[in-house]
Amino acid sequence: MSTCYILGVDVGTTSIKVVLLGTGSRLVEESHTLPTTADICDHSGIKAKEQETSRIIDTLNRCINLLPGDKLQRVISIGVTGQMHGVLFWRAQTGCDWTKRDFFTTRDTSQLITWQDGRCSSNFLSSLPEPDSHLSSATGFGCATIFWYMKHRPQFLEDFTVAGTIQDYVVSMLCGLDGCVMTPQNAASWGFFNTSSNQWNTDILEGAGFPLHLLPECVPSGGLAGQTCSDWHGIPAGTPVGAALGDLQCSVYSCMSARTDAVLNISTSAQLTYAMPADFKPPEFPQPASSVSYFPYFYNSYLAVAASLNGGNVMAAFVEMLTSWMRELGAEMSDSCLYEKLIDSALNQETSDLRVSPTILGERHNPLCLGQAANISTTNLSLGHVTRAVCRGVMDNITAMMPAERLQRAGVSRIVGSGSAIARNEVLRQEVEKAFPLPVLYGLNADSAVGVALVLCDLL
């Protein structure tokens, strides 16, 4: 009997990843990742963070095309996950173009406004109505972004009839949906959604003049959105497609093998999370000053999450700063070569009394607390000292948001460390192990594409 497969797709912040998971073995048999290089330079002065939608979808098509055609023909289900919080707008029925091919291209869509978007200032956010939710709103959240457009560019919204996350868009186009369906995992990341009732705050939003027609229809996490409306790179038309899931939840699902695990993922950003008891109920009201949020998971359960905006992007900014200085000084070195030298220098510098708080992007619970350095002396300004201090600062920030003592009180017995930043940075791994008085396990790598495929596999 031929092996059947589930296709898992992760539409990430910087890359697309696709996997083929064998339904019998529950193992990944094929995998490909490609960078999207979709970021758009912000010349507006409003701290916008946008990505070119067409480039994201083009990368998705190229990634799928790298998978073996004979195995794609045996895909029996498709799971899609991706970057949460952000928002994309499109027009119903004309949001893509299939044009007698077995893949779709974008049409009548906006650019993707990502989770990193900073256009909603603290003053603007404080002017919004109080949500009926345990989760606060923040800049980069879908509903907050729509409110911003209502105030500053209302004519922009008139061009579109549907909104969702980028992963919701992919699902809608695959299924040929007129609208958008969204799971509570993504809806909660937009704000103004009550996870206890699984409903949007329609009364509150309507009272504020919010365009309710842009709100997606909610469906259960793990449920189906529909079936493929056309052959897609050899995957037959009529193949079931799961409603898009959050990348955080899928990454946790891929590697949390026991409820006593905590998962530390450091990629572009950073998250430390553990499972709440089955009977846990979130607070009734938002707690904007809290560094820990409760995200909907599966089967009406929740994850306690310290979601930091500052992770691998901090090291990337450090490298970019140094390469910029070097260019100004007339020297040239590739980012990859410089990164390797920084890590080597920090490995030779086991400790440092330099203190770096690398919260260059602020945090959602404290957006005005930016980065700083302290205890600077003539003896701790080497590359080794500074790189070591930056890596430790990333971990100090995470443990300040969710202290090790809290994990122990929750019954956590080990840390599962994962993510691209941890995988490639030995210095960061050393600082992880210093930060927690618990065993740290590597190898069970959190992988959202694998996680979304496993979710659908478990539902077969």
Briefly, what is this?
It contains 16 helices and 26 strands. It is α+β, with helices and mostly antiparallel strands and 460 residues long. The longest helix is centred in the C-terminal third of the chain and has 19 residues, at 383-401.
Widest sheet: strand ordering: 21-22-20-19-25-26
Indicate the radius of gyration in whole angstroms: 22 Å
* Percent in strands: 15-25%
Helix share, percent: 25-40%
**Kindly, what is the distance between the CA atoms of the first and last residues, rounded to a whole number of angstroms?**
18 Å
Number of strands: 26
Main β-sheet, in a few words? 6 strands, mixed
Structural shape: globular
- On the 0 to 100 scale, the average pLDDT is 95
Question: What are the segments in which pLDDT stays under 50 over at least 5 consecutive residues?
Answer: none
Oligomer: single chain
Kindly name the structural category: alpha+beta
The number of helices is 16
Keywords:
16 helices; alpha+beta; single chain; 33% helix; six-stranded mixed beta sheet; 22% strand; 460 residues; five-stranded mixed beta sheet
